[in-house]
Amino acid sequence: MPLTRNATSTTDAANLTAFTSVSGAPHIDFRDHEDIANSADDPPNGSQGSDGEDDAGGARIPVPPLEGSLISFTNHPANLPNLYQAENHPLRKHGHARTFVYIQDTDEEGLRNSFQAGKDFVIPIAKREDVTATSGSLELFDGDELYTALFALDSAPAPVHLLSYSCARVLTLAFPHSHYRAPAPTFPYLHLLIALCLEGLLTHSHPSIHCERINGNAVFSRDMWGSGLPEHDTIQAWVVGRHLLSKDIQDRVEKVRNDAHGPDDMCGPTKAKKKKDAWAGGIAFERNKRAVAVGNTRCYTVGTSYPAAKVMSAPAKGGKWNGEWDPDLLARKEFVSTMTACATEAMMHAPDKVIENLKNNTEMCNFPRVGCPDNYYYQSVQYNVAHTERFHSGASLKKDMGSFGGKHQDLRDGPPAYSAGTSHSKLPDRYDNGCFFLCELGVHIYLTNMQVLHISGLKTHGGSVPTAPEGVIDIAEWAYHFFVICYPPGAYINGTGHSALAALPNHSPFILGPEMTNLMCVALF
């Protein structure tokens, strides 16, 4: 049964609800602007319903799944989307039993409210079991799948109408069509979103608060000019846990984490410092001159860097090589190799079409293979370090990670690609690992060890600090948050950046411009 857009209804968000049910399947009617809806006297060219017949009353929206029911969230913030439970999605890679759908108000005011909701979302300081009750957000577990289904028109309206349909909830734009026109500056990279389907095996639920699931997390979006079919959705985010990673990768990540952490009795709660000729405090990774942090934080770029002022990519400052290998440089090499290999293995749980598209884009733009030969997806790596805090301290990740520890967007990331965050903290028993939040969606992931989550950094996101059990005063000095981000700088993804290939004898870099590397560039002579 298709979902229809009504030409005569109001734009009030209250109308974005589930209506009549046929054989247990609710008919969801997405109500629209009167000035944009097509009338019966002026149907769009080539517009057809899902049954193949012309739809004179407006384009049909076959947003799957068709069966489902509204799930009650008594503590769910009113400005976050509702959640519907439904069945089956053709793009899921694992045979999970449940699907959930988020419904999005898509008039201009509603979209701005959605964007604001992400800014207003408060990352709670709470134990894992209290996070959902405190924030009203849905908890995702390893392997869950989260889909988005977009407003699918069979023919495009005039481009100016996009200003009313630009949505602040799409994580990325993958290869938009030529007739797409950029919306208002508030939403520079966003398409129109109506529904997010959250798919996976429902293993635990609380009917008034949240659902927990395991095995298969992914987020998909649908091109608003596409067919509206679920198999044409685009993945947005997913979570891969220990049980989905190979034993070899797990062993390598464990060793890299332990090497970066160092002996427990040498760790300190604050950033490592050099006193006279000796380093003290922090973790082993920080106790050498190659540990160059991003600003006044404990976040370290260990892959390539892309200073915006120079518009040029090059190895990060701490990873440059001058003819000889030293122990710290070898350790960084293994760190990058292992973490990119881990992220790449987790990428294999994305739909095949996504993997193929990103590989083709990498070949066309001649990206460097950073870390491992199969890495077509990430060109830089950042290691985020944070010490554990007391439960009632009120501290956040900002203490050690600065802006990276609070709610933020990575606006220099490439829109068609994804960032992979690997969590493998070293904490005593009963300590809380903290959560990762997708703020605009009202979704969070508890950061279990040996876990990789993929998202688009263009969405508002953030995390909560690891905490000791309530009542513990003396925090273990070796209790550290380990979170590594492999990410896609936009200059690489778009094929527009310059790369420093080597140093010339006069100490200037030999630079490769996009006209030398990007096969999509056309030079006119």
Description of the molecule:
The protein is an alpha+beta fold and 525 residues long. It has 2 domains: 69-236, no CATH class; 242-498, Double-stranded beta-helix (4-Layer Sandwich), CATH 3.60.130. It has 8 helices and 29 strands. The chain has helices at 108-120, 128-135, 247-261, 327-347, 352-365, 398-401, 490-493, 514-517; strands at residues 3-6, 18-22, 25-28, 30-31, 60-61, 68-70, 82-86, 98-103, 138-140, 145-149, 195-206, 210-214, 220-221, 234-235, 238-240, 273-275, 278-280, 299-301, 304-305, 312-315, 380-387, 419-423, 435-438, 443-446, 451-455, 461-463, 480-487, 498-503, 509-512. Strands 6, 7, 8, 10, 11 and 12 form a 6-stranded antiparallel sheet that branches. A hairpin with a 5-residue loop joins β28 (498-503) and β29 (509-512). α3 (247-261) runs antiparallel to α4 (327-347). The longest helix has 21 residues, at 327-347. The protein is globular. The termini are far apart. Residues 35-68 are annotated as: Disordered.
